[in-house]
């Protein structure tokens, strides 16, 4: 596909619709129930206005940051999303190559359709691993150890999926994994009977060798418990509006979590990031970095690795432009004062 037609992230979705099966497109694009949260994730970003700074002398802003002792070129990470072979025949290998070319951390989903061993061979940038804890805790432990042994540099435990959400639209789209698309590290869909609790988080923290982040925290009290249970980081997320419909937009939830955490651990966020200005707003409101889900899936569907790279590069370029126009030379210089009050 000619990627020169894709100037922004919305362009990728428009073109992906034409290239993906209806089933795969509905799987990626849909949210839970009436899809209110998915809509609010966007509306809340749109409602935030920015405060420009003129004549500030900033030429090329510096987007680098350090996270868990890892040096990153920019604060845009690839969110964990399942089943990349539904989106492109090269699946997660293309995502890993695309992330590498865009200097982005790629958080690989537990529901990868490519074995971790193959992904690590393809990667040129740090990989993190997203974990779904299964009833079989021994399997969970060996999966964590495999990821650590293979060099994955952080573990994101998804905590907002005690049960899968009410996915009416996905069901209507006829979601079904083709027989040749295999989730090598997950024995079938999530249908757990032994609920994940804070005790399990403490248990994982007792042997994990990499930083453990909890993904799917939305309020201050859970953020506090996360820290008390030993988490090294928090990801404010509503699972892209796919789990519990009518929970707030993540950009609305972020400031309270960031206030409670008060810099004790890094807070990341995802949900609705579609423009560089969204990245700037998230950082201004307390995020150290952001993750991007659906647009990466659409980039992958449009053009494999190149599509993934271009999605991240567009966001990064837009972020740099927003930094210049708000007078921020560095990521740490992005604070509340970029928001129009
Ligand atoms: C997801 N997400 C997700 N999260 C997770 O922890 N494990 C997973 O396997 C998946 N799978 C998944 C598949 C697809 C198709 C989507 C769209 C999302 C959620 C994801 O990590 C992230 O929280 C949201 O996608 C972020 O919102 P945006 O960027 O899609 O608006």
Strand content: 5-15%
The total count of helices amounts to 12
What name goes with the CATH superfamily?
A: Aldolase class I
Major sheet size, sense and barrel closure: 8 strands, parallel
Q: Look at the structure and give the mean pLDDT.
A: 98
Number of domains: 1
Quaternary organization: single chain
The bound ligands are: ligand FNR
- The CATH topology corresponds to TIM Barrel
**Which radius of gyration do the C-alpha atoms yield?**
19 Å
Provide the spatial order of strands within the biggest beta sheet.
Answer: 3-10-9-8-7-6-5-4
Total strands: the figure is 10
Class from helix and strand fractions: alpha/beta
Q: What's the level 1 CATH class?
A: Alpha Beta
Keywords: Flavoprotein, FMN, Oxidoreductase
Active site: 239 (proton acceptor)
Family: Belongs to the FMN-dependent alpha-hydroxy acid dehydrogenase family.
Binding site for glyoxylate: 27, 132, 167, 239, 242
Molecular structure report:
The chain is α/β, with parallel strands linked by helices. The protein has one domain: TIM Barrel (Alpha-Beta Barrel). It has helices spanning 9-19, 22-29, 36-46, 91-101, 116-122, 137-149, 168-172, 198-207, 220-228, 250-261, 276-284, 294-325, and strands at residues 65-67, 70-72, 76-78, 106-108, 127-131, 155-158, 212-217, 233-236, 267-270, 289-292. The strands form two sheets. It has an eight-stranded parallel beta sheet with strand order 3-10-9-8-7-6-5-4. Helix 9 links the parallel strand 7 (212-217) and strand 8. Helix 11 (276-284) packs across helix 12 (294-325). The site of ligand FNR has 24 residues, from helix 2 and helix 12.
């Amino acid at each position: 596909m000619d990627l020169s037609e894709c100037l922004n992230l919305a362009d990728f979705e428009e073109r992906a619709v034409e290239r993906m099966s209806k089933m795969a497109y509905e799987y990626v694009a849909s949210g839970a129930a009436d899809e209110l949260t998915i809509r609010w994730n966007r509306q809340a970003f749109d409602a935030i206005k920015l405060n420009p700074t003129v004549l500030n002398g900033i030429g090329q802003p510096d987007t680098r940051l350090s996270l868990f002792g890892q040096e990153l070129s920019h604060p845009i990470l690839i969110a964990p999303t399942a089943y990349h072979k539904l989106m492109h025949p090269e699946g997660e290998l293309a995502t890993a190559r695309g992330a590498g070319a865009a200097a982005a951390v790629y958080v690989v989903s537990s529901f990868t359709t490519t074995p971790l061993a193959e992904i690590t061979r393809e990667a040129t940038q740090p990989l993190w691993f997203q974990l779904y804890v299964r009833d079989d805790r021994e399997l969970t432990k060996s999966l964590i150890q495999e990821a650590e042994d293979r060099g994955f540099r952080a573990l994101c435990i998804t905590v907002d999926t005690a049960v899968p959400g009410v996915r009416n639209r996905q069901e209507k789209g006829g979601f079904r994994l083709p027989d040749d698309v295999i989730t090598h590290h997950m024995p079938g869909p999530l249908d757990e009977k032994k609920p994940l609790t804070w005790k399990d988080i403490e248990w994982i923290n007792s042997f994990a060798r990499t930083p453990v982040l909890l993904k799917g925290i939305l309020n201050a009290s859970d953020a506090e418990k996360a820290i008390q249970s030993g988490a090294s980081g928090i990801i404010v997320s509503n699972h892209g509006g796919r789990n519990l419909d009518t929970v707030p937009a993540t950009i609305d939830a972020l400031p309270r979590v960031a206030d409670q955490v008060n810099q004790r651990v890094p807070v990341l966020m995802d949900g609705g990031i579609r423009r560089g200005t969204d990245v700037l707003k998230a950082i201004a409101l307390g995020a150290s970095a952001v993750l991007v889900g659906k647009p990466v899936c659409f980039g992958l569907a449009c053009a494999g690795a190149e599509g993934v790279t271009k999605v991240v590069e567009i966001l990064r370029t837009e972020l740099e432009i927003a930094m210049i126009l708000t007078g921020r030379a560095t990521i740490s210089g992005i604070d509340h004062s970029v928001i129009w009050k």
